[in-house]
């Protein structure tokens, strides 16, 4: 039975615990055994938290026996990206700059999850300081991609995705500043939820760009995403019952997002649109001209803030960094404060224009990523290839970050491709209901 548990959704594991069919201690030991036995475990987990996991599992088992479970995921193990502070355990954000950094308390979201009874399996590898969508990290580790052993897994929540895709956690918690939950989810055939900036607390989360940073789950189902969102913010999960695509209007964004699609993502997206249409969704195509202008602001806004946060730490020991990530941070050094302020003022205007243009649609739909996972060795040896693939990787996902939207990526059925649904700011519940109906249509 333990082998089957490793591939169940978090929600199904929770139901099994509630029905007395799954013991949280046995479940946790099954995952810890799998982590120890997996040949790529050291590339996925930066460190397992076995003592903490066992203690939390024993408490969950006692609650289950007494009929006092704390919620639907009480006793369910989770993995945590290595930028969420964990009391007494190193949190290094994939960087030698933060080696042996040990926080005194848990991040707010980890504390919320623990209070709801979940079990912390450990901390997963990530892109250095979260500043890459590729998942390539020669400094600490590059986790594997489930569909291609020679490819990167997507980042920056690379280990979070790998932990779920390889059966080493039922769900992982990551962060998303420009696509860091959705890219690794798509490339590893998972569901990934990027939340609205500011909705979930980033207290105790190592920052990249605080105005864009968000927290979200990487998991096996939309139901899991809904339950984990509620868990992270100490709220109530969206009601997914009766979700349907009948009568919904979906806008396929032709501006920028449909350009330069490789064969795999194009095939997956077209297949997904066909199934959504068959399930009752009305698919329309259209341009939102503001997208191109917002994309032109991305370099200024992201790199300026990232360098402003990290300049002192970076410049004290720049040789400790992967040179390509170092260069990306330093790209923000020359920006003028006046340009940064003007850029944000203009972005707010563009966000208002976007909201007006898409107000009549239930969601905007695009391919999650225009490319398949790039090859690790070629990324390390071919500068032109690295630049091209790196820029394309986060192009589509960044739209939601720039416009302040939640985004939900679903597997299309074509390996390592996703379809991305974007809803209005703060509209996660509606987006998750739509996602549940879309998930059923895509299976």
Question: What is the topological layout?
Answer:
Blueprint: H1 2-5, H2 10-18, H3 24-37, H4 41-44, E1 45-48, H5 50-66, E2 77-81, H6 108-115, E3 119-124, H7 158-165, E4 172-176, H8 182-187, E5 191-194, E6 214-219, H9 222-233, E7 249-253, H10 263-278, E8 282-286, H11 290-316, H12 323-330, H13 337-357, E9 363-367, H14 376-381, H15 383-393, H16 398-402, E10 407-411, E11 418-422, H17 428-442
Parallel strand pairs: 2-3, 2-4, 7-8, 7-9
Antiparallel strand pairs: 1-3, 4-6, 5-6, 5-10, 9-11, 10-11
Helix pairs in contact: 3-5, 9-17, 11-12, 11-13
Question: Could you characterize the architecture of this molecule?
Answer:
With 443 residues, the chain is of the alpha/beta class. The protein is 43% helix and 12% strand. The chain has two domains: 2-233, Amidase signature (AS) domain (Amidase signature (AS) enzymes, Alpha-Beta Complex); 249-291 and 336-442, Amidase signature (AS) enzymes (Alpha-Beta Complex), CATH 3.90.1300.10. An eleven-stranded mixed sheet has the order 1-3-2-4-6-5-10-11-9-7-8, with helices on both faces. α9 (222-233) runs antiparallel to α17, α11 (290-316) crosses α12 (323-330) and α11 (290-316) runs antiparallel to α13 (337-357). The model has no long low-confidence stretch (mean pLDDT 98).
Shape: globular
Task: Report the C-alpha radius of gyration, rounded.
Answer: 20 Å
Structural class: alpha/beta
Share in β-strands? 5-15%
State the low-pLDDT regions, or none. none
Report the average pLDDT across residues: 98
Order of helices and strands: HHHHEHEHEHEHEEHEHEHHHEHHHEEH
Distance between the termini: 25 Å
**Number of DSSP-assigned strands:** 11
